[in-house]
Amino acid sequence: MALHMAVEVVRDSEVSLTAQIQRFIKREITHGGLHPGTRLPSSRRLAHDLDVSRSVVVEAYGQLVAEGYLEASQGAGTRVVRHLAPAGTVVPALLDEDRTPGVRWDLRPGGANQPPFPRAEWLTCYERAVRAAAPSAHAYPSLAGDPGLRLELARYLGRARGVRTAPGQIVVLGGFSQALGLLCGVLRRAGADAIGVEDPGHPGQRRFAEECGTRPVPLPVDEAGLDVSALAASGLRAVLVTPAHQYPTGVTLHEERREALVRWARDTGGLIVEDDYGGGLWYARGPRPLALQRRAPEHVVYAGTASKCLAPGLRLGWLAAPGDLVGPLLRERARYDLGGETLTQLAFAELLRSGLLDRHLRRLNTQVRSRREALDEAVRRHLPGARVLGPAAGLHAWVRLPRHTDEAALVAAALRRSVAVRGGAAFRARPGPGAPALVLGHAHLPRSGVTEAIRVLGELTGDPNTRR
Ligand SMILES: Cc1ncc(COP(=O)(O)O)c(C=O)c1O
Questions:
Q1: Quick check: 355 pLDDT over 60?
Q2: Would you kindly state where each structural domain of the chain is located, as residue ranges?
Q3: Gap between the Cα atoms of 442 and 397, Å rounded
Q4: Strand order of the sheet with strand 70-73?
Q5: Whether residue 15 has pLDDT greater than 60
Q6: What value does the mean pLDDT take over residues 443-464?
Q7: Over the stretch 95-150, which tens digit does the pLDDT of each residue have?
Q8: How much distance in Å is there from the Cα of 177 to the middle of ligand 1?
Q9: How far is the CA of 388 from the centre of ligand 1 (A)?
Q10: Cβ atoms within 10 Å, residue 356
Q11: Whose alpha carbon is nearest atom 5 of ligand 1?
C-alpha cells in the first residue's frame, strides 16, 4: 500500500535523521495528529519519500515499537497502537439527535428509522453515471444543479406529481433544509421576516427558520389541513405547507382549503412553499392529490426531497420555483457554497431516467402499506377509542387518542416498556393541551413489531397512571 505520511525533517541538523523521525511521530501521536490505529507507510515507502536510507526509518519505527507507540505485525504493517485514548471528541451541540439506544421497538419518526435503501438500484445507476460522466462532471458544478438532473426532475415531477415547471426553474439542493434556509434568506432580503408554519408541524423546521432569522408564525391545522383563514388574518407574506400529507397529522389539505390558499397567494402576492416531503410514498387506494403548485406556479415554490423515498443521508432535494425566484435563490446560495456534489446528482438522474425510482417506490409502497395495515388493525384492536388520521401515505401515522389519555404519561410509560414513541406535544408550537396523540413511524418495522408495540401501548392505556 503506497501510503503517504507528512514528516518534517531537517537535513543539516545536529540531531540524527532517525531521532528526528522518531520525535516527530511521537509528538504527533501525543498531540492528536496521528490517531490510534492509523496505519503508517512502509519503511521503504517513507524512506523513499523523505529521500533517506531505509535503515533510518527502520530504526525509528523499531524504537517507537519498543517504546509502545507503534505496533508492527506481519500483513497489517505498522500502526499507531490502538489502546491509546483518542483525542477529545467534539460533540456537535447544534443538532438534537435524541437517540435512545437499546429500545426494542423504536417508532419515533425520522432519524435512522427508515426503510432499507435500494442498494442494487443505486449501485446500478451510480456505476452508469460514473462511466458515462463527461470530464465537465468533475469540474465545479452549476449552482442550480446538474442540467441533466434538472431536465429529468422537470419530466418526473410533471409526470408523477403534476408539477408545472421547466428545467430552468429547477434548483437542486442539499435537501429541503437547505432550501428552507435559502428561502428564508430570499424572503428576508425582500422585507419579509416571518413565515407561517403549520401547527402541529415540524419542530426542526421551526427552529431552522428561526436560526435563519425568519420568525415562524404557527397557524392551526385541523382535519382539513391548514386553517387558511388564520393565514389570511395574519398579514403574513409567506407560508410553509405540507398539503399532500400534513406533517405530522397526515391529513390532506381539503379541496376548498387548496382553493382558498391559492386565492390568498394571488390576492396578497404571497408565497406558498409546498413541502412535498413524502414524494412518491403514497399507498392509499385510488388517485393521490396532485401538487398544489400546478394551480399557481407563479406563487408556489414546490419542494421535494430524497430523504423519505431514498435516504436522508444523500442530502438531496429540489425546488421547482417561480421563474423570478430562481436568480435570488442562486445568489443566496452563492453566499455559502459552490454547488452540490455532481456524481450523486448524475446517479439520481439515472434513477429517474431508467424508471428504477418508480420501481423502487412501487415495491416500497407495497411493503409500507402492509405495515400501515398492521398499524390500523392493531390500533382498532388494542387502542379502543383511538383513530388514525389521514390517508395511507408516508412513513408515519398520527394516532389521535381518547380525550382522557395522559399523553406524556403514556410516552414515558411506553419507554419503560422499551417502546419509543413521540407524543403530539413534541410537534406543537403553542403551549396548551391539544387532543392527546401519538406519532408512530411504522415503515421501518416488520408487521409483528408494529403490532407488538401497539399491543404494549394498549396495555398501558388501561393503566390508571396514563389517564387524566
Ligand atoms: C416535514 C418534512 N419536510 C422535509 C423533510 C426533509 O428534509 P431534508 O430534505 O432536509 O432531509 C422532512 C424530513 O424529515 C420532513 O419531515
A1: yes
A2: 17-80, 105-116+359-466, 119-354
A3: 8
A4: 39-40, 77-80, 70-73
A5: yes
A6: 95
A7: 555 556 679 999 999 888 889 999 999 999 999 999 999 999 999 999 999 999 99
A8: 7
A9: 22
A10: 17
A11: 277
**pLDDT over 60 (residue 94):** no
Fill in the amino acid letter for 191.
G
pLDDT score for 287? 85
Atom of ligand 1 nearest to the CA of 312: 11
Q: Say whether domain 105-116+359-466 belongs to CATH 3.90.1150.10.
A: yes
Are 250 and 393 in contact, with CB atoms under 8 Å apart? yes
Q: Please, which pLDDT band fits residue 300 given cuts at 50, 70 and 90?
A: very high
pLDDT tens figures, 19-42: 999 999 999 999 999 999 999 999
β-strands 437-441, 422-423 pairing? antiparallel
Whether residue 371 is predicted with pLDDT greater than 70 in this model: the reply is yes
Using DSSP, state whether 195 is helix, strand or coil. Answer: strand
Residue 16, pLDDT score: 97
Check if the beta carbon of residue 438 is closer than 8 Å to that of residue 399: yes
Q: pLDDT, tens digit, for every residue of 81-90?
A: 998 765 565 6
What pLDDT sits at residue 307?
97
Class of domain 119-354: alpha beta
From 113, 173, 247, 398, the mutation candidate for ligand 1 (largest count of ligand atoms within 8 A of CB) is: 247
Q: Which atom of ligand 1 is nearest to the CA of 175?
A: 9
Which atom number of ligand 1 is nearest to the Cα of residue 307? 11
Instruction: Say whether 119-354 and 17-80 share the same fold.
Output: no
80 in helix, strand or coil?
A: strand
CB 407, CB 436: distance < 8 Å: yes
**pLDDT over 90 at 462, yes or no:** no
Domain covering 17-80: architecture: Orthogonal Bundle (1.10)
Instruction: State the distance from the centre of ligand 1 to the C-alpha of 201, rounded, in angstroms.
Output: 11
- Residue 306 CA: which ligand 1 atom is closest? 9
Could you read off the pLDDT of 160-188 as tens digits, one per residue?
A: 999 999 999 999 999 999 999 999 999 99
How far is ligand 1, taken at its centre, from the CA of residue 7, in Å? Answer: 45
Give the closest residue (by CA) to ligand 1 atom 6: 176
Pairing of strands 396-400, 437-441: antiparallel
Ligand 1, CB within 6 Å, residue ranges: 110, 175-177, 202, 242, 247, 275, 277, 305, 307, 312, 317
Give the distance (Å) from ligand 1 centre to CA of residue 159. 22
How distant is the alpha carbon of residue 167 from its chain centre?
A: 24
Q: Which residue among 184, 275, 277, 344 is best mutated to probe the pocket of ligand 1, counting the most ligand atoms within 8 A of its Cβ?
A: 277
